[in-house]
Amino acid sequence: MEAKAKARFVRMSARKVRRVADLIRGRNVEEALNILAFTPKAAASPLEKTLKSATANALSVEGTAKLKAEDLWIKKILVDGGPVMKRIRPTGMGRAYRIRKRTNHITITVTDGKDKEVEVQES
What we know:
The chain is of the alpha+beta class. The protein has one domain (2-122): CATH 3.90.470.10. Helix content is 39%, strand content 31%. The chain contains four helices and five strands. It has helices at residues 14-24, 29-37, 44-62, 114-122, and strands at 2-10, 73-81, 85-90, 96-101, 104-111. The strands form two sheets. The protein has a three-stranded antiparallel sheet with strand order 1-5-2, covered by helices on one side. Strands 3-4 form a two-stranded antiparallel sheet. Helix 2 (29-37) runs antiparallel to helix 3. The longest helix has 19 residues, at 44-62. It starts with a strand and ends with a helix. The mean pLDDT is 91.
């Protein structure tokens, strides 16, 4: 069983978010939330929020009687670049420098690991 959550148009460069996403990729959800809580990067906050949303989506689909949050682990994290807002900064002698305010899209997929066992048995 898989569940997915997306955070779109997060006002941060994708490169900065990927550094924090690499810390939690493939880990247990509970362990990943602990790592994000103590990571001193601004990117930890939107990742934590998206991970909690993916966990809640999994629990709502499957039901809390069948599935516990501790049983979930992170199957996939994607951090893609979003649209870039372009701004102009005036500089000396009538010139203008372009400021690029980057955004990104975060996609987190969590699973309970039972799909993996089924695939192994079939082949």
